[in-house]
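Just scan my protein:

——
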Amino acid sequence: MSGTVPPFPIPDEALINGHTKLRVLLDEQRADYGGNEQIADGCWGVFALPKVDETQNLIINSLLRIAPFPFKTGESEDGHWTMHYVEEDQRAQVRHWLDDLIRVLDGRMRKAAPEDQARIAKLADHPMPHRVARELADRAATGEIPPGSINDHRTVRALMDRSHRQEPMFLAALLMVLEAHLIDLKVLFDVMIAEDIALGNELTQGSLSRDPFIRSRQNAAAGIRSFLVSHKILNPLDQQKHSAGQNPYIELTDLRRDGRDFILRIDGRDQTSMGSHFIETIHRVRRQIYRGIDLPEIGTNAPWVTEDSAYPLRFIVERDETRREVAPLVWLYMLERAMDG
């Protein structure tokens, strides 16, 4: 799978005061404005900055120069504040953009943009689902859509319900988004019912048909079943859901919990790490990857690595080396979801 990471969305100019101060500034602006405060009819404030603060204006202007939406700039009635604002139809994109910037600074999992959420919503009833799935999968391959973006129980259930129609193009579409790691496996495990499994058994039984229509349906169904088995959702022995646990990511990552701690197998030995240290390390590693640093390049001699984060970092890198077919951001997503138990 492609390990492509989209360009870092924050220009160097915006980091002139450092990572932490930018994070605080964006959080304050999101709380007070951020597309949530109406400053006039049909106009919603994005940022409001004191005109005398040249540094803050420099930082915000550098961000707005690469913002993915049109905006307007004015000043407050008293002339003391610079106001950047958008019209009603840009509000959703503004809110997502600010949230995305903060998530990147934090190293947290990103969310699908509004336009990609709209594509996902089409998948369950679109007349040409394979085209929608291809568009989603292509954007996932370039890092534009984060892993696990299809994570709403109702949406995943709708996809499984449509699979019962046995449409070859939809089954191929479902396989496409599964292989792109766009469907959250824990949610998929939760919504799967006996009828879904029975359908998979039915479609993959018997010899391959000579009819190209039926054969394409059989191939897609076989691919879905193979994916579900390899990703610890189906048990290959009894062809039913795995009974060992409710979270496939735990088995996929070899992550073991001991109360609030996690047992990490490193160099053939077990090491204990507090959950808070482990999740903090995941976020720090993801932040480095967002900046364009490859996971194998992140060593325990990095300035931010402490005694508490050294073992989690070694575990993350070591396991990544054994799963080279999985993109690093997907691997970190799997690890973080495994921590949910």
User: Anything to note?
Assistant: The mean pLDDT is 91.
